[in-house]
Design brief:
Blueprint: H1 5-12, H2 25-45, E1 49-54, E2 57-63, H3 78-89, E3 96-102, H4 108-124, E4 150-157, H5 165-170
Antiparallel strand pairs: 1-2, 2-4, 3-4
Length: 178
Amino acid sequence: MKPPPWRLALVLVPLLPAGCGPSGPQRTTQTLNDRLLTLLAPSIVLGDAALQPLPDGARVTLLGSRRFPNTSEPAGDRNNQIAGSVVQALLDPRLMQIDVTDTTSLPLSQRTARVREAQTYFVNYGLGPTLLQGAPLHPPRDGIAPVPAGLVLTISVRCPPGHDPIAYWNGLSDPVCD
C-alpha cells in the first residue's frame, strides 16, 4: 500500500525552516543554549542551577555554596549530575571557552577551592584547553544581567575565523559554526 502524499510533507516540512534561521555563531550559540536548557531543566526546576543565555554563549550557575564535585565520576549526588549535564551539553570543545568564577560570599580559601575543583573536573573530562585562566573570584562584568551567588560557568562560543573547504577533504578540518 502506498502512503498518502501528505505523510511525505509532514517529514519534509520541518526541514524547510532550517535553512532560513540564524547561521554561523548565532545558530551555534542557540544550539548550545538549547542543549543546556534541555539537560539542566531538572536542576533548574529544583533550584540547584540557573541558566542565562548570552549573545555569545551561556552562563550556568550552581546556586548557593554547593561544592563542585571533586571527582569525575558521573554518578552520585546532584552536583555530579549537574556537572555531568553541563559537560554533555557542550559542543565541540574547540568551539568552547569556559570561564569559572565564584560569586558567593564564602571565605576566599573556600571560593578558590571551589573554582579549582571545577577546573579539575573539566580537565579530567579532557576539556582543559577550553578553560580561561583569569581572575576566578570576581563576578563576570558583561552588563548582561546580575549574576546569582554560586559557582558560575560562563561558556562562550568561539567560531574559527574562516573555513577551509580543502581541509575537509584531507581530514584536517577545524570545527565550523554552522
